[in-house]
Amino acid sequence: MNDQWKDYPVCYGTQFLMAISANGGVYPCGHWFNDRSEEFIMGNVIDTPFREIVASERYWEVQQKIQKVDVNHECESNCRQHYINMFLDKLAHQPDHLNFI
């Protein structure tokens, strides 16, 4: 939507909010429903229960790949995980006296 620069370096939001395509493919996010979809597919809910997909080795392989993605150049500027990532980054890098008046 707009070319907003992300202040966080890594996307951890995909561990909290994933995407399922119309054909049942489970992906870290909808951005990967493209020509690189085979690289980022974690499983298919038509063939395998979601619980098993999330507990699988493939799930963690894809999550590790996502952590190497450049969020400012390879991701969309208007992603669903943006606010999750902003919160997690602030949680990990809390300033001193956040609530100081």
Structure characterization notes:
The chain has 101 residues and is mainly alpha-helical. It contains 4 helices and 3 strands, in the order E-E-H-E-H-H-H. A 3-stranded antiparallel β-sheet has the order 1-2-3, with no helix packed on it. The chain is elongated.
Topology:
Blueprint: E1 19-20, E2 25-27, H1 37-40, E3 43-44, H2 50-54, H3 57-66, H4 82-92
Antiparallel strand pairs: 1-2, 2-3
Notable traits:
3-stranded antiparallel β-sheet, 4 helices, single chain
Give the low-confidence spans.
none
**Order of neighbouring strands in the sheet with most strands:** 1-2-3
3D shape? elongated
Oligomer: single chain
**What does the radius of gyration come to?**
15 Å
The fraction of residues assigned to DSSP E strands is: 5-15%
Number of strands: 3
Rounded to the nearest angstrom, the distance between the terminal CA atoms is 35 Å
